[in-house]
Write a structure and sequence with these properties.
- About 40% of the residues are buried.
- It is built from 7 helices and 10 strands.
- It has a 6-stranded mixed sheet, with helices on both faces. A 4-stranded antiparallel sheet has the order 2-1-4-5, with helices on one face.
- The two termini are about 30 Å apart.
- The chain is of the alpha/beta class.
- Helix 2 packs across helix 3 and helix 3 packs across helix 4.
- The protein is globular, with a radius of gyration of 18 Å.
- GO terms for molecular function: ATP binding.
Length: about 230
């Protein structure tokens, strides 16, 4: 197996009496697209938020690039969780300039990431007037500014039309060829099948399956069987 860029060991997160993550152990191979599957409420967003320092785990360990995760590693992790963090009264370039100043990265990165997400032609158009797909791509551009080794995307195709979904899928699939690992969460099986090399399936806070994507396997049956087991446990 290739080197894991991010690994968790017995990771748990509890909110009062509710156990949102229950001893999750997973490994995300470097330079791959890893699909994190789970029904709504399975714990996907909670897991991603622990990986990005938004939440602190109750128990367990998190490792990044071969060492224990620390907040210093956030400079090598780009993320888009929930809604894109954009200023609607600013243009795409202005949004990225604000973020570049915060990160301390050169402005030369702005044009590069705009090209990557195909937003170079937006000119003086304010981000508030962007389509949902354009806002998603601007959010991804913001996450890419620091040239991360790991990009984390939470339900990135939510609300997109078929063309937007296709374009975003192809963009995500291109990143491993640029030396970047992508962790993408979703509850849409067909999308994960088309873009991911590896998958993990969460159910009620537990990682019930992890492995390579087998195009010949019945992913829907596997997912539903796991969801049903979790419901009756």
């Amino acid at each position: 197996m290739s080197k894991a860029i991010l690994r968790t060991k017995q990771l748990s997160k509890q909110f009062g009496k509710q156990k949102a993550l229950d001893r999750v152990t997973l490994a995300i191979p470097e330079n791959s697209v890893y699909g994190l599957l789970g029904a709504n409420g399975a714990g996907k967003s909670t897991l991603l938020k622990t990986m990005t320092g938004i939440l602190t785990p109750t128990a367990g360990s998190l490792y990044f690039d071969g060492h224990v995760w620390s907040r210093k590693d956030l400079g090598k992790i780009g993320s888009l969780i929930e809604t894109p963090p954009i200023y609607e009264n600013l243009t795409a370039r202005e949004n990225l300039k604000v973020r570049a100043l915060m990160l301390g990265v050169p402005e030369s990165r702005i044009e590069k990431v705009l090209q990557t997400v195909d937003l170079t032609q937006t000119g003086k158009k304010k981000a508030g007037a962007f389509s949902l797909g354009m806002k998603q791509r601007l959010g991804i551009a913001t996450a890419l500014l620091g040239n991360p080794k790991l990009l984390i995307l939470d339900e990135p195709t939510n609300g997109l039309d078929p063309v937007g979904i296709r374009d975003l899928r192809e963009l995500i699939k291109s990143f491993p060829g640029q030396g970047m690992t992508v962790l993408v969460s979703s509850h849409i099986l067909s999308e994960i099948r088309q873009m991911a090399d590896h998958i993990g399936i969460l159910s009620h806070g537990r990682l019930e399956y992890e492995g390579r994507v087998d195009q010949g396997a019945d992913l829907e049956k596997l997912f539903l069987d796991i969801a049903e087991r979790g419901r009756v446990r």
